């Protein structure tokens, strides 16, 4: 994999482990020469990850809709910043550029990006690996919900294989490499 799109919170959360583990992922991406594609903000886990990749000599591409340039703090040091018109264009561009996807802890925006990407995989719009970086078991309730949806007959059982769930960046990237 040459490029991974990471969905992440514009907040850092309230547990220092979120920052610590996000930095570990950034170091691993840079060490493996994997370019980061992300939302382009300087704040929260997004900014922590971008800073770490850049500090490690890696490349970072930010993608941000024009209307967010005023609301979000644009990361001033990304390798490339792509300005798009809408959130839909942002997600389409991220998907176009990425060889895989990772969801870090985040809020509604992260959830929305994650679920759209899973939905696209489910209907065959892409076959790229998708991973939940399950820092401090952040995504464990989501995994349990998905397993509940499978048992209830709303999600096909084989769709559980659409995403990887790991709490270690090396394991996460190795599993993604095996799925591509």
Automatic annotation (TrEMBL):
Keyword hit for Hydrolase: yes
Enzyme Commission code: 3.2.2.n1
GO cellular component: cytosol
Keyword annotations: Cytokinin biosynthesis, Hydrolase
Annotated GO MF terms: hydrolase activity, hydrolyzing N-glycosyl compounds
Gene Ontology biological process terms from the UniProt entry: cytokinin biosynthetic process
EC class of the enzyme, as a word: hydrolase
UniProt xrefs under InterPro entries: LOG, LOG_fam
Top-level taxon in the UniProt lineage: Bacteria
NCBIfam families with a match to the protein in the record: Rossman fold protein, TIGR00730 family
Family affiliation: Belongs to the LOG family.
Name of this chain's protein: Cytokinin riboside 5'-monophosphate phosphoribohydrolase
Native species: Halobacillus trueperi
């Amino acid at each position: 994999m040459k490029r991974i799109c990471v969905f992440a919170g514009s907040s850092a959360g309230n547990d220092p482990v979120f920052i610590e583990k996000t930095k570990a992922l950034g170091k691993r991406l840079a060490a493996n020469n994997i370019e980061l594609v992300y939302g382009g903000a300087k704040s929260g886990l997004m900014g922590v990850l971008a800073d770490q990749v850049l500090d490690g000599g890696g490349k970072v591409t930010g993608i941000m809709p024009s209307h967010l340039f005023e609301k979000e703090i644009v990361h001033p040091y990304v390798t490339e910043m792509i300005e798009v018109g809408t959130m839909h264009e942002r997600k389409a561009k991220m998907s176009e550029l990425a060889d895989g996807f990772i969801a870090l802890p985040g809020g509604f925006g992260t959830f929305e990006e994650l679920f759209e990407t899973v939905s696209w995989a489910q209907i065959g719009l892409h076959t790229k690996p998708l991973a939940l970086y399950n820092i401090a078991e952040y995504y464990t309730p989501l995994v349990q919900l998905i397993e509940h949806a499978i048992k209830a007959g709303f999600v096909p059982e084989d769709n559980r294989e659409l995403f990887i769930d790991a709490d270690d960046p090396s394991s996460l990237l190795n599993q993604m490499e095996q799925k591509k």
